[in-house]
Specification:
single chain; mainly alpha; Methane Monooxygenase Hydroxylase, Chain G, domain 1; 85% helix; 0% strand
Length: 311
C-alpha cells in the first residue's frame, strides 16, 4: 500500500507564488495565508437563528422562574396581585416559546415534504440528514420547554396547596368561635331563669328575651353553615383551577401528538397512492413487454420459415 503524502505545504507555497506574481502586497498575502489556518465562521441559516432565539427565550424563562421562585411561593413576601402578575408573565413566556417552536416544526415539515420523492428518495434540495438534524433541534427545544413548564406547574401546585391549607384552619376557627358564642348565650339564659324566680314580674320580658335568643342562635347556625359551604366551595374551586391547568397542559401535548399523527397519515396516504400508480405502470409495462416478446417470436418463426423456403 502506497504511503499518503501531505501536500499542504506545497499548496501554500504555490498560493504564495501566485499571489506574489499577481502583485499582492504583504498585508493581503498575510490575510490569504491566515485564511488557511483560521477559517471564517459559517453563516447560520435562518432556521438555526430562530432556534437560537427560541433557546434564549427558554433560558430567559428559566432565569425568571429562578428569580421569582420565592416571591411566588412565599405568601409573606408578595401580595396575591403580584403573584398573579408573575403567573401571567410566565404564561405569556410559555405561549411565545410554544409559538416559536410550532413555527420551526412547520418549517421542518415543509422542508421534509419538499426533500422527499417517491419511496423517500432524496430529490433536489436539503438531504435527509439535514432534515433529521432540524427535527432533533425542535425535539430538544420542546423537551426543554416542557421541563421548564413542569417546574412552573410544581410552583403553582405549591401555591394552591398553601391556599387550601390556609382555608381549612380558618373554617375550624369559625366553627369553634360559633360554638363558644352558643355556649355563652345558653349560660346567660340559665342566669336569666335563676333571676326570674326572684322577680315574677319580669316573666314576660324573659320569654321575649328567650325567643330573641333562640332566633339569634338559629341565625348564627345558619350563617355558620353558609360560611362553611362558601369556604368549601372556594377550596374546591382552587383545586379545580389546578386540575384545569394540568388538564390543559396534557391536552396541548396530546394535540401536538395528534397533529403529528395526522401529518404522518397524510404522508402515508400519498405514498400509497404513488405506490398504486407505480404498480399500475409496472403492470402496463409487463403486458406491453409480453406483447413485444410474442411478436418477436412470431417474426423470428416466419423469418426461419422464409429462410428455409428460400434455401
Amino acid at each position: 500500500m502506497a504511503k499518503v503524502r501531505d501536500r499542504s505545504e506545497d499548496f501554500r507555497e504555490a498560493v504564495r507564488r501566485n499571489a506574489t506574481s499577481l502583485g499582492y502586497n504583504e498585508s493581503r498575502l498575510a490575510a490569504i495565508m491566515a485564511s488557511f489556518i483560521i477559517h471564517k465562521p459559517r453563516e447560520r441559516s435562518p432556521f438555526m437563528k430562530a432556534a437560537l432565539r427560541t433557546l434564549e427565550s427558554i433560558g430567559a424563562l428559566e432565569q425568571f422562574l429562578k428569580k421569582h421562585r420565592k416571591d411566588y411561593v412565599d405568601r409573606h413576601r408578595t401580595t396575591e396581585q403580584e403573584r398573579d402578575g408573575i403567573e401571567h408573565e410566565v404564561t405569556a413566556f410559555i405561549k411565545t416559546c410554544k409559538e416559536q417552536i410550532d413555527i420551526l416544526q412547520r418549517s421542518v415539515t415543509v422542508e421534509e415534504t419538499n426533500s422527499k420523492g417517491w419511496l423517500s428518495l432524496s430529490a433536489d434540495g436539503p438531504n435527509a440528514d439535514t432534515v433529521a438534524h432540524k427535527q432533533g433541534v425542535v425535539l430538544i427545544l420542546s423537551e426543554k420547554l416542557h421541563s421548564t413548564t413542569a417546574q412552573f406547574d410544581h410552583l403553582r401546585a405549591v401555591r394552591f396547596q398553601d391556599a387550601i391549607n390556609r382555608a381549612t384552619p380558618r373554617r375550624k376557627l369559625n366553627r369553634s368561635a360559633t360554638s363558644a358564642n352558643v355556649d355563652s348565650k345558653s349560660q346567660s339564659i340559665e342566669n336569666d331563669r335563676v333571676g326570674g324566680a326572684e322577680a315574677p314580674q319580669q316573666e314576660l320580658l324573659r320569654v321575649q328575651q328567650q325567643h330573641l335568643d333562640d332566633e339569634t342562635r338559629a341565625l348564627q347556625v345558619e350563617l355558620t353553615n353558609l360560611l362553611d359551604a362558601v369556604q368549601e366551595t372556594e377550596t374546591k374551586m382552587v383545586e379545580m383551577s389546578a386540575l384545569n391547568h394540568l388538564i390543559s397542559t396534557h391536552v396541548l401535548q396530546q394535540a401536538q401528538q395528534i397533529e403529528q399523527l395526522y401529518e404522518q397519515a397524510i404522508e402515508a396516504t400519498k405514498n400509497v397512492e404513488l405506490g398504486n400508480r407505480e404498480l399500475s405502470q409496472a403492470i402496463r409495462r409487463n403486458s406491453s413487454s409480453r406483447t413485444f416478446i410474442l411478436l418477436f417470436f412470431i417474426v423470428l418463426t416466419f423469418s426461419v420459415l422464409f429462410l428455409d423456403w428460400y434455401s
